[in-house]
Amino acid sequence: MNLVETTRAIEAGEVSLGIELGSTRIKAVLVTDDFNTIASGSYVWENRFEDGVWTYPIDEVWTGIQQSYTQMAADVQSKYHSALTKISAVGVSAMMHGYLAFDKSGKLLVPFRTWRNNITEQSADELTKLFDFNIPQRWSIAHLYQAILNGEDHVRNVNFITSLAGYVTWKLSGEKVLGVGDASGVFPIDDKTGSYDKKMLEKFSNLDNVKQYPWDIEDILPDILPAGKVAGHLTAEGASLLDANGNLEAGSVMAPPEGDAGTGMVGTNSVRKRTGNISVGTSSFSMNVLDKPLTKVYRDIDIVMTPDGSPVAMVHINNCSSDINAWASVFNEFAARLGVELKPDRLYETLFLEAAKADPDAGGLVNYSYQSGENITKIKAGRPLFVRTPNSKFSLPNFMQTQLYAAFAPLKIGMDILINQEHVHTDVMIAQGGLFRTPVIGQQVLANALNVPITVMSTAGEGGPWGMAVLAVYAKRDTDESLEDFLDQEVFTNPESMTLSPEPEGVAGYQKFIEKYQGGLPVEAAAGDAISD
């Protein structure tokens, strides 16, 4: 659309809004019906470690959403000289999993327990054995059952549990629903029915320590909707929660709320069987859409769903780019002491380009980028740790290389199970995330680490909220067209992308690094035991 056509679309309300509450940023993206982003706004936030729990204040959810929306609306006004008063469709996505529990009055019973927590080991192990289905520590049902095992007082008063995206959608629309992809991180889904697995619900309800409570598990879970269905409409109260200035009208179609994994799949056109994508950020995860079931249960492989309900093998790691960001901040402070002001893109580009000069094995340096515990490597407490021997080749290129190597290390450990043991192959593996804003460097490291070709699209840094906006457009279309055909034939008609294949020398170098990395894991574990937070 040209400027005049876009202005008319805004005035007619023919625009759709995608909101994503990520781990470090809340972002609002407004798109036209041809899927072009015309305005955006964002808010930076950080999780807090309080009373042994990683959390975000619930009030900050709304502070962040309102500031993101206000910025986005101001962006519309400045570019198109039109006030934003009508939006045809709204979709909300957020960090998956975690635990938000409410009583019958809608009061939050305990602070939001995020995906980052690894405090549910006992419940996750017991439920995995009970269901013969992998239940990760971060899933909502693991948090609920751990609270039961802990004898927490609030459990008796639970009336509703949901994800972060489900909570925001509930407050905007009054509907207690989840998209099937996000719901698959709350409780296991039966892919044949698209609903919560009935046999597993019954097994959970029949546990002696569950029977004591006045609620039934089915009654406290959100309803499930696949992508393309209408999940209610924006209420007047919801409109005021979005737009603190009071200009936005009620009535927008609400898309089923999704997790950031689902929007990552949509944003990279990876919902068709034998496609895959990798999202890189504070955490990281790979999504491999399966064409056949896995042969057995793996504790490091989660079975979740695409937004339209196909099974996905997910490898999720709690730690990815946080340590890189911390070191970049230190380098930026040093530059500032020298009177040099660096914008973020220039800072990261400069550091990442140094990695291109590194030795293939990063000079024997080893790094553990664990801001929090890491389930795949059985590390309970995060202690970022850099290790070298007297004979290691300690240089800036090797240091930056080991930062990138460490960011992908737990992901590789999980992906090796799928590739080497289950022989899962994808026709395309697409990566997205801010780490790829610097071209080639991170992409090549990832290709070498996993020993598979990696594709990065031109939208690699902004996939999630835009992917949710695409799902909002899909919901308002009310079409019988499948999501995969909708994405292929209407959204990604001319995608810009670049694919890098593994380099034999880089693959061999990364293998040397990962062997040292795995050999040193007891040191990282000991650091968590010996150094209090």
From TrEMBL:
Residue stretches making up the Carbohydrate kinase FGGY N-terminal domain: 16-242
| One Pfam family this sequence matches | FGGY_C
What are the alphabetically sorted keywords of the record? Kinase, Transferase
- Which family does the record assign? Belongs to the FGGY kinase family.
- In what residue span(s) does the Carbohydrate kinase FGGY C-terminal domain sit? 277-475
| Assigned EC number | 2.7.1.17
Quote the Gene3D superfamilies the UniProt record gives: 3.30.420.40
Organism whose genome encodes this protein: Levilactobacillus fuyuanensis
Q: What molecular functions are annotated in GO for this chain?
A: D-xylulokinase activity
UniProt protein name: Xylulokinase
- Lineage start: Bacteria, Bacillati, Bacillota, Bacilli, Lactobacillales
Q: Top enzyme class of this protein?
A: transferase
Superkingdom of source: Bacteria
